[in-house]
Amino acid sequence: KILVIGAGGQLGSELTQALASTYGAEQVIATDINAQAASKFDFCQFRPLDVMDQRAVRELVVQEKVSQIYHLAAVLSAVGEQKPLFAWQLNMDSLLYILELARELKLDKVYWPSSIAVFGPNTPKQQTPQYCVKEPNTVYGISKQAGERWCEYYFQKYQVDVRSLRYPGLIGYKALPGGGTTDYAVDIYHKAIAGQHFESFLRADTALPMMYMPDAIKATLDLMHAPREQVRVRSSYNVGAMSFTPEEIYASIQAHHPDFTISYAPDFRQAIADSWPDSIDDTVARRDWGWAPQYDLAAMTEDILTHLPHFRFETTDM
Ligand code: VAH
After folding, report:
1. N or C: which end of the chain has fewer CB within 10 A?
2. Where is the secretion signal located (predicted)?
3. Whether complex ipTM tops 0.90
């Protein structure tokens, strides 16, 4: 069985659906600390689960004969700066416990998301390479960098088959984002559809690497299905799809909604965005397991503006 921890989040909501479609709903157990997330999972089993409750996690894994864990629960960049020690503790203690459980119970595979947040102010900003200086200055980024080191350690020392991707900002219309610095790029579509003005918390010219959720799901499943020997990076793979600024995503939407307006009011998240790359070099992922994104900005905007007006959010998302 496949256990998804943090299934109720922005990535988890869509990845759990993809896993159920791929493996069969009866093979997937969705869990989240927010019991209300149950309303999202009428297609597979849902259990409330706090990843910090190690006994509960272990009991579930043993009882349900879990063979793969997708550990998606984390405190993201913006919220992490409001609660640094809690963010560090949740992000790190939960990963270490899952890696230890995978080692002890010899689980088949573990997936754990990293992020472009592992890069810092002195990382090369254009076409950031797979290997480079990484001095993250957010708690979230520090936890992702440390987590990558632990993933590689458990693979090299105990042969735990843990795999990871450094996601760019993820954008989808089926779930709201969970407290990150790239959340603006999801909210802007909701404001456009609602005919409301949009105020960006990042400056107009702030370029960030971004990816449409269908591409993020495809990258995750492609990586997890790759033969073990093809997965040569055991820290976390750079993956890219596009890069854009708030004014560029606004322009792509205004082409469909001429009356849509934007203004810019940078807040504390501007400094976080400024510490991250503008664009990502994902040559290594393309070489090792054939990564290839499908969506650029125009295609993403077209797809979201087509589907979002008809999409019914679960109560927990509003
Ligand atoms: C965040 N959405 O903003 C996440 C992601 C690259 C950004 O890690 O924290």
Report:
1. C
2. none
3. yes
| Shortest-distance atom of ligand 1 to CA 80 | 9
Identify the residue whose C-alpha is closest to ligand 1 atom 2: 180
pLDDT at 317: 53
With a cut of 50, say whether residue 11 has pLDDT above it: yes
pTM of the model: 0.97
The string of pLDDT tens digits covering residues 108-142 is: 999 999 999 999 999 999 999 999 999 999 999 99
pLDDT in tens, 245-266: 999 999 999 999 999 999 999 9
Mutate to test the pocket of ligand 1, among 182, 184, 186 (most ligand atoms within 8 A of CB): 182
Confidence band of 318 (pLDDT split at 50, 70, 90): very low
Which residues are near ligand 1 (CB < 6 Å)? 76-77, 115-117, 140, 167-170, 180-182
Indicate which residues carry an active-site annotation.
140
